Amino acid sequence: MEPTGVGAERSGQERTTALPGNARWCGSGKAPARCVVVDDSLTAQEAYRLATSGTAMLWRGDYHNARQLLSALGRRIPAPAVPAVSVAASATSASAPAPGGDVAADFYRHRQGRAHRSRILATLLVPLAPGPAVDLRRAPDITAAWTHAHGDIDEPSVVPLQDLLGVLGAEQWRVRGVFVPALGAAIHPHYGTFAPVRGEYLDLVADAPLPDADTAFDLGTGTGVLAAVLARRGVARIVATDVSPRAIACASENLERLGLAASVELELADMFPAGRAGLIVCNPPWLPGSASTLLDQAVYDPKSRMLRAFLSGLAAHLEPGGEGWLVISDLAEHLGLRSRAELLGWIEAAGLRVLDRLDTRPTHRRAADAEDPFHAARSAEVTSLWRLAAA
Q1: At what angle do helices 305-317 and 340-349 cross, to 10 degrees?
Q2: How far, in whole angstroms, is CA 133 from its chain's centroid?
Q3: What is the DSSP string of 137-196?
Q4: What is this structure's pTM?
Q5: Contacts for 53 with CB less than 8 Å, ≥ 6 apart
Q6: Interatomic CA distance for residues 207 and 201, integer angstroms
């Protein structure tokens, strides 16, 4: 169904400009070079033509019509083609495909298609007024959501509608929280921090045999969920680090809410804090690849930088007899992005040995989604906690 009142043959363009007036750009990407002002008379077909030509559209009509137009744009973007035979091979072969294989190329093309889709949808812009508020008819109250994500707005601004919807969605996660059975309580993710919806890796950390450690490090703490699990298990002192100020603020709020703040020291740092610990836990992004958004940074680890930094620095930060817990899935292996031999080689080169590996199968919805273009790889995925020690 097309947006209400968007049936005219041509759009309701008023003028072409870089950005209207003195409006400040608030989008996650670059500000558009070309922009036309449009309204409810814009057809979805004309909007798609403008979007694919690289022209942004500043909406001046009804907010709900803008949302319908965004959906109509999305339906017009071709889905990236993924050869089913190469994907199926990833799960049926005796070993994971080597990096650079067909599955890896298919996955790369799929990501390119997703990025193209995001760029097209990002051409539909909405105006923001100081407050902040959406300067459109029937717009929702965005004050709390936007302020939590980006702070106040003190001048007229412009943002892609899809970015605004992401902010509103993140606020719902923050308010509702994600129930974590390993804690018996909810974790409340902030905008830009990854929600702990993959419960199987939390259960691994909750159930693995604890070494005799008075101090633990949690590297890349995010929402603080793993630090909270360790604190609940009785670790007396935990130092949790993250390179993101958003994550530190999120973890602080969650630990305070759970009554665990006294057990966890939060530190804005890239990887290891100073000193040594009897237990060092790291749950790096599971897939090698570039990260173009805040949430991508929780999924994609460019050139496996964080994974390799954890392994290479682990031995120097472990107390005698201490353990390092690497929490990671083998999805990258099934997608041909990293091999098991590479991972084992990095472990050995870092002067580490494997004490044990605890495995579990994912239970999240995508693992059972037969419509997912990479279902074969996802259905074969195993999440593991590698117990590592200095060699």
Answers
A1: 30
A2: 26
A3: BTPPP-HHHHHHHH----S-EEEEHHHHHHHHHHHHHHHH-EEETTTTEEE-PPTTS---
A4: 0.86
A5: none
A6: 10
| Structural contact between residues 388 and 346, judged by C-beta atoms closer than 8 angstroms | no
Question: How many CB atoms are closer than 10 A to CB 332?
Answer: 28
Residue type, 31: A
**Lookup: tokens for 200:** 């199987």
| Closest by CA position to 231, among listed 212, 219, 216 | 216
pLDDT in tens, 153-174: 889 999 999 999 999 999 999 9
Question: What is the Cα–Cα distance from 90 to 279, expressed in whole angstroms?
Answer: 34
Burial 243-265 (b: 16+ CB within 10 A, else e): ebebbbbbbbbbbebbebbebbe
Tell me which of 3.30.2350.10, 3.40.50.150, 3.40.50.2300, 3.40.630.10 is the CATH number of domain 177-390: 3.40.50.150
pLDDT of residue 128: 95
User: Given pLDDT bands bounded at 50, 70 and 90, which one contains residue 367?
Assistant: low
